[in-house]
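Sat 14:20. Reprocessing the chain from the morning session after the first attempt stalled halfway. Input below, unchanged.
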Amino acid sequence: MNKLKGKTAIVGIGEVPTGKYPERQAIDNAIIPARQAILDAGIDKDEIDYVMPTGSLWNSAFNTEITTARIVEELGLKGVHSNVNVFAGGASSSNMLKIAASLVNSGKAKYVLCVHADKLASGITSQAGIDLFSTAGMSLEWEAIYGQHYSSVAGLVTQRFMYETGTTQEQIAAVCVSNRKWAELNPHAMHRKPLTVEDVLSSKMLSDPLHAKMSNMLADGGAAFIVTSAEKAKNLNNKPVYLLGDSGRVTSFALGQQPDITRFGYAEAARDAFAEAGLAPSDIDIAEIYDSYPIFQLIALEGLGFCKRGEAGAFVAEGNTMPGGRLPMTTNGGMLSQGHTGAGGGVAVLVEAARQLMGKAGERQVAGAKFAVETATGGCYMDAQVSILGTEIA
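Finished this time. C-alpha cells:
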C-alpha cells in the first residue's frame, strides 16, 4: 500500500484569476499558469518530459489542440516524451496527480507538467452550450432526457441528506458563507463580495431546496502544477508538497444507480488514503474539499471522518471551517466563490492545497499547516477521490 508514499512531490504551481475574461484567450489560461509553475519550481523548462493537460469543455477544437501538444509548442519545450490528456471530469485533478506520481516513481518521467484551462464564462454564449454543460457526464438515456440536470441532482441529494440527518437549510447556507469568507481573501476569486446566510436563503429557488446562491458559477480560468521525485524536490525553490496517500471509489455512472446518494464512496476512499499516509483526520490542518454545491462538502466532511453522521452542518455553521476555525476548508473559495472552470474546479482546489502547504497563500495562509486532504469527484458524482498531502513524511 505504501509504494508511492512520500516518493513524489508537487514542486511548482501557477494560476490565472478566475472569472469572466473575454479578452484573455483560452490558450493563455493554460500557458500563463504553466509558465508560472515552471518559474515557481525553478527548473529548466526543457527538463519537463511529460505534459499532462486535462479536458477543456467550452470548445472541442481547443480541447483537441491541448490534447495534441499545443502547450508543448507554445512553451517551446524541447525534452517532452509524451503529451497525454487525462480527463475524469471534476476528479481530473486527483487522477492527474496519481498518474504523474506513478510515472515519476517508475522512472519514466523526471518532471510532469499538469495543466488545465477553460473558458466557460465568456466562451459559452448559447443556451445549447449551457444545456450541454449542465448535463455533461449524466445519463442521456435515463436521466437527462427526463429533465435531470446538475442543479436538480444537487437538490435531490440535499433533500435526502436533510431528511436523513436533520441538517437545516441554514446550515447548508453556512457552507456557502464559509467558502465566501475565504474568497474574500483570494485575489483570484470570481466572487469576493461578503455573503450571509440570509443572502443565500433569500436568493431564488433553483431546485428545491437548492437556492441560486448555493450553486457554482461558470468561469474562465486555468491552473498548473509540476510533479517530480522527492529526491529532486529537495534541491528546488519550494518546500516540497509530498503525496502521502491517495485512494478513490467509483460507485456509478447514473445517479439513480448510486448505492447511497448521501454518502457516495468517501468513507472507503478516505480509509485507504489515511492508512497509506499513516495519518488520521485529527492530523489534518486543511481540508480542500470539492464543492460544486454545498451539500457535497458536508457529505465529504462526514465521509472523511471529520464529523459524525449528521453533525457536519452544525460544525460548519459554528464557524469551524472559516478563517481562524479549527478546520480551514476549501481555502480558495472553491467553485461556489472562486468559480467553476469545469475539470479545473478540482485542479484549483489541489493547487490551493499545495499553495497552503508551501506557505504561499498570502492573507488566507493557514499558519503552520503541514498536512492537507484534497477531494475531487467527477461526472454525476460517479466517484470519490481522496489525496493526502504533506510537507513531511509521517
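The chain has 14 helices and eleven strands.
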